[in-house]
Amino acid sequence: MSRRRRAVGVERFEPAPLDAPLLEVEDLHTHFRTGRGVARAVDGVSFSLERGRTLGVVGESGSGKTVLARSIMGLLPKSNVERTGSIKFEGREVIGATPDDLRELWGSQISMVFQDPMTSLNPVMKIGKQITEMLLQHLDISKDYARELALSLLESVGIPEADRRLKEYPHQMSGGMRQRIMIAIAIACGPKLLFADEPTTALDVTVQAQILDLLQAQQRERFMAMILVTHDLGVVAGRTDEIAVMYAGRVVEKAPTKVLFSELRHPYTEALLRSIPKLGAPSHTRLAAIGGRPPDIVNPPAGCKFSPRCPYARERCLEEEPPLIDTATPGHEFRCWIPVGTPENREALEANRAAGAPSALAVVGEGNGMGTAAAPSAPTPHTRSGSIDTKGGA
Ligand SMILES: Nc1ncnc2c1ncn2[C@@H]1O[C@H](COP(=O)(O)OP(=O)(O)OP(=O)(O)O)[C@@H](O)[C@H]1O
Ligand code: SF4
Ligand SMILES: [Mg+2]
């Protein structure tokens, strides 16, 4: 009997009611024991994702994006790691699931496109075999039908001469082609949730745009939910329904995509947005780097973890960590005592400038940097031709 038909997997992950969220993550912590102490890579993350929707997870290197994705997938190292909280997929708890149950989920229900296809594809196995093996593992179909499916999958991800390509090895293909193959493998069994972890950073800008367009098209066509992980707000701007901004293992701001760009409140989100080239900026304009270094997650600063880099930080910020605060806009929440766009925020910037704080002096432009949180410029369209729209419901 195939693994797919084993009673345990089927019982555990049989479909939940369609109106239940596809994924519910509640107070997720993933901590690693290291020689220096405990690294809080994911530190109390909660969110939920409906079927067919897209969530962007954005943050600098080391903010915990990949560990978050791997924690949900159950793809963590075997030792020196502790994962607590709750992850429900279609209403069923995933934390504590057996390896057999997890194998039921991977590929057929939840799938992942990694950053570098060369490390994920088997270099000594032909592409066709890699795809058909995946199909045969999860679907009760014949080898001939698996090959037919593999052909149509390659066509659907825009690979010409699919018949010939099936007989090739990964090294015979360009980076963009390999990433298309990875997408074909990831969507092969019709997963309900697709993680795309920096799926385009290894590619040049034009190919990046094509791959992101392809992912978006497949996501819509198949009504998959997608979690798009990136360090670049520009990448998620027009392609997600919602964005979660991560800093030091925590979500510091979360909002529907359009709201995040028009009503951002967290200074770190503002700094990320500043670091993107603006539409209409003269060529060779220098990008604003985010000053300071990302925090040490083993020995994080007291109070707000962004405080050493924040132009608005005041005494309270150094002492007390802000909780997640809801705004009047549904789905918009942030962690900050002195949010962007408030009079207190402007006053804090002035006071810090007067005191000569480097993070405050580095903020150029009028008043509080953004002026108000309203209407920051859209990111430059470096992910596809034409302008990036920041509409939700992408
Ligand atoms: N196995 C591990 N043991 C100890 N620390 C780890 C382990 N894996 C990740 N970390 C730490 O967890 C933190 C978050 O890492 P993660 O890979 O999630 O960052 P990221 O946001 O994906 O960054 P990038 O944009 O560079 O991919 C980092 O400080 C990293 O060093
Ligand atoms: S204003 Fe204070 S609480 Fe808000 S991000 Fe800056 S340091 Fe943190
Ligand atoms: Mg990563």
Q: Can you tell me about this structure?
A:
With 394 residues, this protein is α/β, with parallel strands linked by helices. The chain folds into 2 domains: 3-12 and 23-243, P-loop containing nucleotide triphosphate hydrolases (Rossmann fold), CATH 3.40.50.300; 262-276 and 287-393, no CATH class. The chain is 32% helix and 19% strand. The chain is built from 15 helices and 12 strands. The protein has helices at residues 7-12, 65-73, 99-105, 117-120, 127-138, 143-156, 162-165, 175-187, 205-222, 233-237, 257-263, 267-274, 315-319, 343-354, 358-361; strands at residues 23-34, 37-49, 54-58, 81-89, 92-93, 110-113, 193-197, 225-230, 242-247, 250-256, 325-326, 333-334. The strands form 2 sheets. Strands 6-7-8-3-9-10-12-11 form an 8-stranded mixed sheet, with helices on both faces. It has a 4-stranded antiparallel sheet with strand order 2-1-4-5. β11 and β12 form a beta hairpin. α6 (143-156) crosses α8 (175-187) and α8 (175-187) packs parallel to α9. The radius of gyration is 22 Å and the shape is elongated. It starts with 6 loop residues before the first helix and ends in a 33-residue tail after the last helix. Bound molecules: adenosine-5'-triphosphate, iron/sulfur cluster (SF4) and magnesium ion (MG). Iron/sulfur cluster (SF4) is lined by residues 267, 304, 306-307, 310, 312-313, 317, 322, 336-338.
